[in-house]
Amino acid sequence: MKILKVPGMLLFSEFVGTALLISVGLSVVILDFSPDSPATALIPSEGVRRLITGFLFGTTGGLIAVSPVGKTSGAHINPVVTIAFWLRRKMGTGHALGYVLAQLAGGVVGAVPLLVWGKAGAVVQFGATLPGKGYASWEAALGETATTCALIALLFLVLGHKPIRKFTPMLFPFLYAVMVYLEAPLSGTSTNPARSLGPEVISWEFRAWWIYWAGPMMGTLLGLAIHKLAWLRFLEVEVAKLYHFEHDPYHVFKQQNELSSPGECPP
């Protein structure tokens, strides 16, 4: 198995994209759910605030995908998205490993600016994901599994359908609005280990860390398994990117179809 050196610009862009997602996306979480925030009084309904939070968090991810940062790296900004592309042989092992490390580093660094929120952020652990009150850890893990399965299944459905794949970034605002509205009381709706790691580090809140790895990983495998169903096999994801599909100057996003095992790169 060959492990290729990952171009530094790709890793830097993925790092920046993930850091932006955490800084901006979790600022929305703090703004909408801190008891000290005016949003709590302005929008008393917690359900409505969950809906708005999910939409704005997903919008942040979508905007990163269409940005110059996303054009360079493909804007996975989530380890399980990278792992899903790797399992579908769209990225080599070295590239996937580099991306996951860049995303985790970006998640931690991107969480540091959240400290500016001070007490307003600290009271909600700076957006850290935890099982909801009254729910067991296994229930939260099932919630993460279900939401990540929906994310991967729908993402690959859209990416695999050429006429609509250009609209992929538009999927995230609506998908996260629904998922956060329905599932956030259970686990906080992470679907992204890097998104959970950042606030865990700055708030030093690791009580349920395993949920936000095990759940998303199981959900990823289930989401990919859905695409093995006979009626979906015609949907072939060609490029390991969420937008700017033709931009691949380093030839790392679409050369894996012919390989016999994940991570092998052509000579």
Rg over CA atoms, rounded to whole Å, is 18 Å
Note the overall shape. Answer: globular
Strand content: under 5%
Secondary-structure element pattern, one letter each:
HHHHHHHHHHH
* Helix count, DSSP H or I runs of 4 or more residues: 11
Category from helices, strands and their pairing: mainly alpha
- Number-wise, the strands total 0
The major β-sheet equals: none
Mean pLDDT: 91
- Fraction of residues in helix: 55-70%
Distance separating the two termini: 11 Å
Low-confidence stretches: 257-267
Describe what you observe in this structure.
- With 267 residues, the protein is mainly alpha-helical.
- Helices cover 60% and strands 0% of the residues.
- It contains eleven helices and no strands.
- Helix 1 runs antiparallel to helix 3, helix 8 packs antiparallel against helix 9 and helix 8 packs parallel to helix 11.
- The C terminus is likely disordered.
